[in-house]
Design brief:
With 553 residues, the chain is an alpha+beta fold. It has helices at 2-30, 32-43, 88-99, 103-110, 125-133, 154-157, 169-173, 175-178, 213-229, 272-275, 285-294, 330-335, 339-349, 351-360, 380-383, 387-393, 403-414, 441-457, 528-542; strands at residues 44-50, 56-60, 63-78, 117-120, 138-146, 159-160, 166-167, 182-190, 193-199, 207-212, 234-240, 247-253, 303-306, 309-312, 315-318, 326-329, 418-419, 436-437, 471-480, 491-503, 510-517.
């Protein structure tokens, strides 16, 4: 009897073992592929995400300085659906006190049928700790664009706005370069957490600007002081290497803080250096003189008899302050900024040739500077061909330009007749700018000498820096009523006062253009030229440029 029971138990064990082995064989071999796929599906996770945005750096004596980066910020939020109706009033009071927000706003959000309502953004560390300890308050982490220097170089940088996209400046122009690339991230779940197996998400590229951190700081400070000193509506300044086109500084005042861009009127985002057209005034006269010299229409020794005015088809053109200078040579026309004299010079060239050169100097096309939203004027009214339009254009009235167009055109005067394009993002080390030969090197040299005389003996003397030869020109242009939003022909009594120049004049290392919009002063000699001088003095010292001659008392 006992033996039968043992055999029965043994038989059950054998059968059970056989069934277990068969089931194991079926799972691992017959159905193994299907079960492995299900297991991997539960253990592996796939998420789509976008890589971090690239940083933007400025240059400081060869060292990079972060101008735009990414920063983790924390927001406090609630889930109204999880809060009992009878507790909402008390929680609203508590949260308002803890986070220093309005109780009514918190209560309004609590009454929504929502699982997620932010009640305060950008928490401080202390507030974050409070939220983490408080019932019914939650933390949301977000990566946002951060500008460590606040309003510094804001018009060059731009900002990152809605939908995490760049707006204005290099942020928008280089959006596709800066933005992180969307990809898939594969992870493996295990008891210790998630192990990343494969990540195709790529961070955006970094940008290194030509903007010099120290030069930009100085220019912004001086520009702000001058705008406030002369009660101007706004001001603008550019510093550029005229041999390469590298922009070392570009400043506008007033500025804005890209960290808080939504607190500013959109009009302040406009970069006047390349998003505003204006009539440049007498800073344009060296261009007209260069055209005439290049065509051999005049020589530096030629003379002109100035009577103080000139009649053109019934319209009288006067000199500044209605002065007359008698017999003057070509250099004196620039030194004393004689309107009638420069009209004479243009007439010696002829309107058609004058216009052809203006096209060559790039005044009817964009410069291509790598900042978003560059504008330019087609100058249709000027191109109508009226004689008076050509006359006034010769001294910078009736023709619209941008500041970067002026800088590009004047680079030909400073760079042996070769015009270079301005840019703000560093190029490869082997990059050699290929400019366009607009005028001859001899012409550029002659105009440079005339512009030096303008600083040494003429209206630009307030820009003079002892020990250095500077080539420059003032410009005080009346602002048309139309530019002020007034439906009226002609010009207002408001002025745009500017100064352009390069130094050291015979081997330039920098070019500067500064302008003040409607200052109280009567001319650029008083407002813009001294600002140019301050920036020049800083650059001579900062770049350790030796003087051209010894200064004696």
């Amino acid at each position: 009897m006992c033996d039968k029971r043992l055999w029965f138990v043994f038989l059950i064990v054998i059968v059970s073992t056989g069934l277990f082995c068969w089931r194991l064989f079926n799972l691992q071999i017959v159905e193994g592929g299907e079960w492995r796929a299900q297991a991997q599906g539960q253990q592996r996770i796939f998420t789509q995400a976008q890589g971090d945005r690239g940083n933007i750096y400025l240059n400081s004596n060869g060292d990079p300085v972060v101008a735009a980066t990414n920063k983790k910020v924390y927001h406090a939020y609630i889930s109204p659906r999880r809060i009992k109706e009878e507790e909402k009033e008390s929680f609203a009071s508590l949260f308002a006190d803890l986070l220093d927000v309005e109780k009514e706003d918190v209560l309004k959000r609590m009454k929504k049928d929502s699982a997620y309502e932010v009640i305060k953004r950008n928490l401080s560390e202390e507030e974050k700790e409070v939220v983490e300890r408080t019932e019914e308050l939650y933390i949301q982490e977000e990566l946002t664009r951060f500008y460590p220097e606040n309003d510094f170089a804001s018009h060059v940088l731009g900002f990152v706005g809605g939908e995490n996209r760049g707006q204005y400046g290099v942020e928008q122009y280089y959006e596709k370069v800066l933005q992180g690339k969307v990809g898939m991230r594969e992870g493996l779940k295990n008891p210790l957490g998630t192990l990343i197996l494969n990540d195709s998400i790529k961070r955006g590229e970094d940008l290194f600007l030509t903007i010099d951190y120290n030069v930009q700081h100085f220019v912004e400070r001086e520009l702000e002081e001058r705008v406030e000193q002369f009660d101007a509506r706004s001001g603008m300044a550019i510093v550029m290497n005229p041999k390469t086109g590298e922009v070392m500084a570009m400043a506008n005042y007033p500025e804005f803080d890209p960290n808080k861009y939504n607190k500013f009127e959109s009009s302040v985002f406009k970069n006047s250096a390349m998003q505003s057209v204006f009539e440049p005034g007498s800073v344009f006269k060296p261009i007209t003189m260069a055209i005439a010299l290049d065509e051999d229409a005049v020589n530096p020794e030629d003379t002109f008899l100035d009577t103080g005015s000139v009649q053109i088809h019934g319209r009288t053109i006067y000199n500044y302050a209605r002065r007359s200078y008698g017999e003057v040579d070509m250099s004196r026309i620039l030194e004393n900024s004689i309107n009638t004299g420069i009209v004479y010079v243009k007439d010696r060239v002829g309107n058609e040739t004058f216009l052809d050169y203006l096209h060559e100097f790039g005044f009817f096309e964009p410069t291509g500077i790598d900042l978003h939203g560059e504008v330019y004027s087609k100058n249709r009214s000027f191109l109508e061909g009226h004689e008076v339009n050509f006359a006034t254009a010769s001294y910078g009235q009736g023709i619209n330009v941008t500041a970067v167009q002026l800088m590009r055109a004047f680079s030909a005067l400073a760079n042996n007749g070769e015009m270079v394009d301005p840019y703000v993002v560093q190029r490869e080390e082997y990059y050699i700018p290929s400019g366009e030969q607009v005028i001859s090197a001899e012409t550029a040299s002659l105009v440079t000498e005339m512009m030096i005389n303008t600083i040494e003996d003429g209206f630009g003397s307030t820009a003079k820096v002892p020990g250095y030869y500077i080539a420059g020109k003032t410009g005080t242009a009346q602002i048309p009523w139309s530019s002020l939003g007034v439906s009226r022909r002609g010009y207002s009594d408001k002025t745009m006062q500017g100064f352009i120049g390069f130094a050291p004049a015979l081997d330039p290392e920098f070019m500067i253009y500064v302008s003040l919009d409607d200052p109280w002063s009567r001319s650029a000699e008083v407002s813009a030229a001294p600002l140019f001088k301050e920036i020049s003095e800083f650059l001579f010292e900062y770049k350790r440029i030796p003087p051209d001659y010894a200064v004696t008392d």
